[in-house]
Specification:
This protein has two domains: 367 residues, no CATH class; 128 residues, no CATH class. Helix content is 59%, strand content 7%.
Length: 526
């Protein structure tokens, strides 16, 4: 690997990562995670916003389902694709900062952190934001360095896409602002002109969603505000401690690779391949300088301020305001941490890259196999009620059986349930079956208001745990003419029993009238 690694090698590594995690999760899981199922349900229509989040990840999932349907492995693939795209921009930034070898080493190091690897299989708004945050950092660096209008405009566009993914993009924008203050770039007139171009592009990208927010009483912002409520300062400090410990655990794989590299280097030294032991290619373990010494002072400052500010500013704000923190909210906070490994790495680049590549590939394989085994065969053998072993196909088969018994010849198009249970039933019935979430028009904008139940629906809920029905769902169930309870074993013969409450709502006269030949346009009549 003496020749500098190019884009082909980077793409090959990313393809290997996507394939490994997607295939193993697809084989071992009978259902996606909760967030992945939520995106499959929300993908039913293209909206300018949803009750909990901005729309971009659901738009992308919509087009993915149009192309591939709704298999349970699709969220794993989508999550890993966005993880890989995020790593691609880490690599591109590294190519601006340092040599191709070192750029790839930094990319490989950060790829084993939980947010790009294990949690990269979870397609939610956090994972979907990885690419736009890393792209924003890349174009922010280029815009400041080269002062080209094109780079400022691209920064505004990808920044807008990051905001359309999740409002937490503001945290990264705060890091940009702090760096402008620290570096003194804010004093330059041309920087303000560039910021103006970026702001204009940003505003154009997000303006349709801003209109939607105004029309819908800013529902996602209220949801975000409610999510931050900790229930007191003591509870907030407890959340902060758990949050920090979780981040340490999720960064641990990268630390493990650096530790293994250190042991490998001390045992085998740094002799380049093909050279004799007494030639100049040998360097003792402490002879070579750290890679970071070759970075300019401004680039080191950029990596530290832009890379550390998201986590540190979030911690400070949490302490000051007493707000709640969820571990997964930090998904994009550590995208530059692979470059911090260059503060430790040193020696002949081709030798160290080969070692890092071997260690990272091995760790990805171990983590993916271990995760797949734990979430699949091991969970089944222990009877653990894990979402990965949820009996979606069995529940869907029962729903279809009861529906056909009471509504023969009519397709089952609507499941009235919560997102998780209803989604697991709907995706196994077919692409035309949608979830009427908690019998709420606001949460189910893919139905025109007041029309979801016109042509009949299947109600499904479990009285246990989070699947307990909303008051609207319970009222519909109580009024349904046909209902019953089935028991389905979760996670094999040892798992707990799901009490599936089902009910069938018949089609209304409005549906029957709309389907009469004389109610159709003339050109549609037989």
């Amino acid at each position: 690997m003496a020749r500098p690694p190019g884009a082909a090698l980077v793409l090959l590594c990313l393809l290997g990562m996507v394939t490994l995690w997607t295939v193993l999760c697809g084989i071992s899981h009978s259902a996606p995670d909760l967030d992945g199922m939520e995106e499959l349900v929300w993908a039913a229509s293209l909206e300018l916003g949803y009750t909990k989040h901005p729309p971009l990840p659901s738009w992308i999932m919509h087009f993915a389902t149009e192309l591939l349907g709704r298999p349970v492995w699709l969220p794993f693939l989508m999550g890993q694709l966005f993880s890989a795209l995020g790593l691609w921009f880490v690599w591109k930034l590294g190519r601006e900062l340092t040599t191709p070898h070192r750029a790839l080493m930094a990319t490989l190091l950060v790829s084993v952190t939980a947010y790009f690897a294990l949690r990269g299989t979870i397609y939610n708004h956090n994972t979907a934001q990885l690419w736009s945050i890393t792209a924003s950092i890349y174009w922010f660096y280029r815009a400041l360095r080269d002062q080209r209008t094109r780079d400022w405009v691209l920064l505004g566009i990808v920044g807008g896409l990051a905001m359309l993914t999740k409002y937490s993009a503001l945290i990264q924008f705060t890091a940009f602002f702090l760096y402008l203050l620290r570096s003194g770039a804010w004093r330059q007139r041309r920087v303000w002109i560039g910021i103006g171009w970026a702001a204009l592009a940003f505003a154009l990208v997000i303006s349709p969603h801003l209109w939607w927010l105004d029309q819908h009483d800013f529902e996602p912002l209220l949801y975000a505000d409610d999510s931050l409520q900790a229930g007191g300062r003591l509870a907030a400090l407890s959340d902060l401690l758990s949050f920090s410990l979780d981040q340490a655990g999720r960064l641990a794989p990268m630390i493990a690779v650096l530790g293994a590299w250190t042991l490998w280097r001390r045992r085998c030294a740094d002799r380049a391949p093909g050279h004799a032991a007494n030639d100049a290619s040998f360097a003792g373990p402490d002879a070579a300088p750290r890679y970071i010494r070759d970075f300019t002072a401004s680039d080191r400052q950029f990596l530290l301020w832009v890379g550390l500010a998201p986590f540190l500013s979030t911690v400070v704000i949490s302490v000051l305001l007493g707000s709640r923190l969820e571990a997964s909210w930090a998904s994009t906070f550590f995208v530059l941490f692979g470059f911090y490994g260059l503060w430790w790495l040193r020696g002949p680049e081709s030798v160290q890259l080969r070692r890092i590549l071997i260690l990272v590939a091995g760790l990805h394989l171990i983590m993916a196999l271990g995760y797949a085994a734990a979430r699949g065969p091991l969970a089944l053998s222990l009877g653990k009620a894990s979402r990965s072993t949820y009996p979606g196909p069995a529940l869907a088969a029962l729903a279809v059986q009861h529906w056909q018994q009471h509504q023969p010849g009519r397709p089952l198009r609507v499941i009235v349930s919560n997102t998780w249970l209803g989604g697991n039933i709907a995706v196994h019935i077919g692409p035309q079956t949608q979830v009427y979430i908690d019998a709420s028009d606001e949460q189910s904008p893919w139905f025109a208001p007041g029309t979801a139940l016109q042509c009949g629906a299947m109600i499904a809920y479990s009285a246990q745990g989070r699947a307990a029905p909303s008051p609207k769902v319970q009222a519909l169930y109580d009024a349904a003419p046909w209902k019953g309870i089935d028991e389905v074993r979760w996670s094999g013969s040892k798992g707990r029993v799901i009490d599936l409450h089902w009910a069938v709502l018949p089609a209304t006269p409005d549906c029957l009238r709309s389907q009469r030949p004389d109610a159709l346009p003339a050109e549609s009549r037989p």
